[in-house]
Amino acid sequence: MKTKLFSTLFSLVVVFSFMSSCTQVEKDQPTKENSLPKELSEFKGKIGKTYATSEEYWQNPPSPPEGAPNVIIILLDDVGFGQTSTFGGSIPTPNLDKLADNGLLYNRFHTTAVCAPTRASLLTGRNHHEAGSGFLVEWATGYPSYNCLIPKSTATIGEVLKGNGYPTAWFGKNHNTPDWETSIAGPYDRWPTGLGFDYFYGFNAGEAHQYYPAIYENTVPVEPNKSPEEGYHFMTDMTDKAISWMQQQKSIAPDKPVFMYFAPGAVHAPHHVTKEWRDKFKGKFDHGWDKEREIVFERQKAQGIIPENSILPPRHEEIPSWDSRSEGEKKLYSRLIENFAGYMAFTDYEVGRLTDAINDLPDADNTMIIYIVGDNGASSEGGLEGTINEVKGLSGISSSLEENLEKIDEIGDPSTEPHYPVGWAWAGNTPFQWVKQVASHFGGSRNPMVITWPKVIKEKHGIRDQFLHVVDVLPTVLDAAGIEMPTYVKGIKQKPVEGKSFMSTFTNENAAEIRHTQYFEVLSNRAIYHDGWIATHQHTLPWRQDIAPGYDNEVWELYNLKEDFTEANDLSKENPEKLKEMLALFDSEAERNHVYPLDDRGAERLISPKPSPVGDRTSFVFHEGAVRIPETAAPNLKNRSFTIEATVTGKNANGVLLASGGGSAGLSFYVKDGKPTFTYNWFDTELTDIVSKKSVTGEKSVIRFDFEYQGGKEPGKAAIGKIYLNDELVAEKEIPKTVAGRFGVDTFGVGMDTGSPVTHHYKPPFAYTGHIEQVKIELK
């Protein structure tokens, strides 16, 4: 009897468990209401045996909700809190001022303290580690939070708005596609056009040469329509394209709202701007960065940007004083900041052209502009001494003052890639401590934001001080548009959105705080905010990785932000229990957001193995038309021996056979005046030319270059270069220095030198005038 009863009960448990699991499966499955893409609207006609007994009914694709606004997100690059006039800075930004005078200024808005992670959070509404973007793609490691592969479970704002009928476009910088996926080999699903954007016009990298950018239109490389000498600048080009796209959309469907993500490379280095703009600031910063910080601090208080009782934190000993610099250094550093100021003012002018065009739209009143002034604080990546060749500086190689002063009048021109020194970055982040990458303090993570929406925001120049984070932008946009975040996108269950809508602040300056807790982490620089308190740990500095203390001897600071807007008064020793509480909260948030493992490695992480379409191959064959190949998808011509062999036809032909890199660093194998020539450009400081003693005379020739590396396993050492013409040795010369890491932002190509030229012995692209049958490369 007991056995029979037990058997019956067991059967019932199995049945109920099965029913429960079925119910759960059904509950978790995507529905028409909570998934993207959406189906066409319901067919409401009639289907008979023939058309005579049937009734037509046109089904409609998804469309934005009635009254949904145009949404324009503008995101500048590497702008400090205290650099624009709108937020108390010394660089006039009249067009940003104009927006602020017609909307709201946010003085407690936060980014992640570095570019690509901020952009991932902006696009997805998730914290950067949850979006797979714990740091930059160049430093990616094989952990889900750090591989820089934005997961399908974190759909972007572009995907959600496009799925609800918005036309979507992205202009400018894309630093969210892993650089090993930016070649023609793809995949393309993490390019902008694969992330929900109908149209993309911009570059796939952390920065771009503004006179010679590597531009893509959707997924196709395109070249600038004129030269720098003819007035080309990428900032103007992308603004023209953005205005044109927007105007065409409204010409065809004036009542249909659009979404635009406008993300200039400006004002990230290289700081490129014409003489006309940089000359406007001659002598304006001769007082130096210490005094500049004091001037901006007082202006910020006068403008109401910061509280009247704010304290200006002192300069850290890691940052030299202006008075300790020599006269030659002061001359160079003043020119570098004058050049940057011209670049910032020029950028404001171009953004003003865009906003003027927006104001001319038929539905300008129902257009929400979210203008985020920087994806992190001002950048110190120019190092303590500044540089006129940023790639050289990022490679850990200093330029002498004499070298830089020789080119002082060219700073900002196409022949330079300038970046100001650390002191100006520190001043640019007034009133806060530290700089970009230092996520522990607001100098790295607090950026200005201005929002206008005439239909809804009626207040003029209103200041909002709610604590916000970049993850809050996506839910705010969706809230404004009346669109819900889907549970499923393309059948994939979505991670919860971390951000919250702050639309309440649009009409109420006293709106309740929406963000009570927020963690920060970049390169082990960490902070945790909670209800007015913040605990901070500065771990590494962009210009000094060697000071990382290890993870056993960390020093944390504690600030009460309700009384201390600028993080000037460390309370860690006075309130150890509160600090302990905050550290436990950081660990909890770090676990929840998959921040671990922490990693404070610098160059080692940069050169660590990463996925590559090249794989372990050592033999390559290229043909004409193989251009604009990213350096990471091309044969690695560094720290090893290799051979380049070009088979060509055509008498008296000249031009580039193969080039990699550009004006900052690179190599080019070409024929000039009939003679095969090889130029190695070591950071535009030492250029080695190897010229054949014989000319190409036959209808068909094989031209070979042998690069015999002399450094063994040590990187960046000397090499011997040899040129062969039809197997005859026709030139040989030592190359005393070679590049150990990357050539920079320029690309690899066969048959022409696109972008900034490796050498000034020719004008780009110097396309080969004969025919290149093939170029073979053998890596030794």
TrEMBL record:
Keywords: Calcium, Hydrolase, Metal-binding, Signal. Residues 69-483 form the Sulfatase N-terminal domain. Residues 1-27 form the signal peptide. Its EC number is 3.1.6.-. PROSITE patterns: PROKAR_LIPOPROTEIN, SULFATASE_1. SUPFAM superfamilies: Alkaline phosphatase-like (SSF53649). GO terms for molecular function: hydrolase activity. It comes from the Bacteria. Belongs to the sulfatase family. This is Arylsulfatase. It comes from Lutibacter holmesii.
